[in-house]
């Protein structure tokens, strides 16, 4: 294996960005970032000049926020779900980029709460994103405090601006009939499976006959949910039995699109929304 030409002690972190793969170089693990490049081992003379400048502050520099984020992303504190992991990574890297030049000790200062609120205010016109930015940042900071990387933090219990009341969102039999009269067969199946099981799209699209089991003579689905990792047991209603029986024997999952390809969670959700909106005047569902 060829030896690295990087100066001894340089810490390199690879990150996938919208522009492609990039490498971030830190003067040492936990030290300041001094270079970003698309190659693993830069040959630009300015790279060594930047490194020399960075190590001058070795004795006064602190554990930096981007390194704290990298350590969090490599830790067991990351959520288990694949979709949630992707969302956390996206927002964690945004957080790291915003505070790239700040030591982790920044978060031990009471004024850091204002810094964090100012950052997430960039998304104030999108309440869900505004709140999610804060959720991920606080998760990282709580982890850092628990791991002894920072001594304290002042960013917990941030105010939230997103709220939704789904208590009155109900699909009546008339709503479902109007929907199914207008939607194509593959979307009807999404609706039926969603209404009869109450599962989220991420769980619906994974359902197969393999999830079926019999208990005390009753057929049911046994599902480990994606969001919380809990096992749910769902009785097979007559509507579900019909849907299962109508599924071709060579079709692995119960839900496919109009091209007979497995659905993604977002596709299943958008299909319902699209046809709901088309017949909005016939539906009494409140959103």
UniProtKB/TrEMBL annotation:
Family matches, as Gene3D superfamilies: Intergrase catalytic core
Domain Tyr recombinase: 157-287
Domain of life: Bacteria
InterPro entries for this protein: DNA_brk_join_enz, Integrase-like_cat_sf, Integrase_catalytic
Membrane-spanning intervals of the chain: none
Swiss-Prot/TrEMBL keywords: DNA recombination
Protein name: Integrase
Lineage of origin: Bacteria, Pseudomonadati, Pseudomonadota, Alphaproteobacteria, Rhodobacterales
């Amino acid at each position: 294996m060829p030896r690295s030409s990087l100066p001894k002690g340089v810490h390199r972190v690879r990150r996938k960005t919208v522009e492609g793969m990039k490498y971030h170089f830190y003067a040492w693990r936990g030290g300041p970032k001094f270079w970003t490049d698309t190659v693993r081992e830069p040959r630009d003379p300015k790279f060594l000049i930047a490194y020399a400048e960075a190590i001058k502050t070795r004795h006064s520099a602190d554990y930096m926020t981007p390194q704290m984020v990298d350590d969090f992303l490599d830790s067991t504190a990351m959520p288990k779900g694949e979709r949630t992991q992707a969302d956390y990574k996206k927002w964690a890297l945004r957080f790291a980029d915003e505070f790239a030049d700040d030591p982790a000790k920044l978060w031990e200062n009471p004024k850091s709460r204002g810094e964090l609120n100012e950052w997430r205010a960039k998304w104030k016109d999108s309440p869900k994103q505004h709140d999610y930015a804060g959720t991920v940042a606080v998760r990282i900071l709580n982890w850092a405090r628990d791991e002894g990387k920072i001594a304290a933090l002042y960013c917990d219990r941030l105010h939230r601006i997103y709220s939704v009341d789904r208590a009155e969102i109900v699909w009546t039999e008339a709503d479902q009939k109007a929907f199914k009269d207008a939607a194509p067969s593959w979307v009807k199946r999404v609706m039926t499976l969603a209404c009869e099981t109450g599962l989220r799209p991420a769980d619906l699209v994974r359902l197969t006959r393999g999830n079926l089991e019999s208990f005390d003579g009753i057929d049911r689905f046994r599902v480990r949910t994606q969001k919380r990792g809990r096992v749910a047991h769902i009785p097979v209603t007559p509507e579900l039995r019909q849907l299962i029986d109508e599924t071709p024997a060579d079709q692995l999952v119960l839900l496919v699109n109009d091209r007979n390809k497995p659905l993604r969670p977002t596709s299943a959700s958008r299909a319902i929304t699209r046809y709901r909106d088309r017949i909005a005047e016939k539906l009494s569902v409140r959103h």
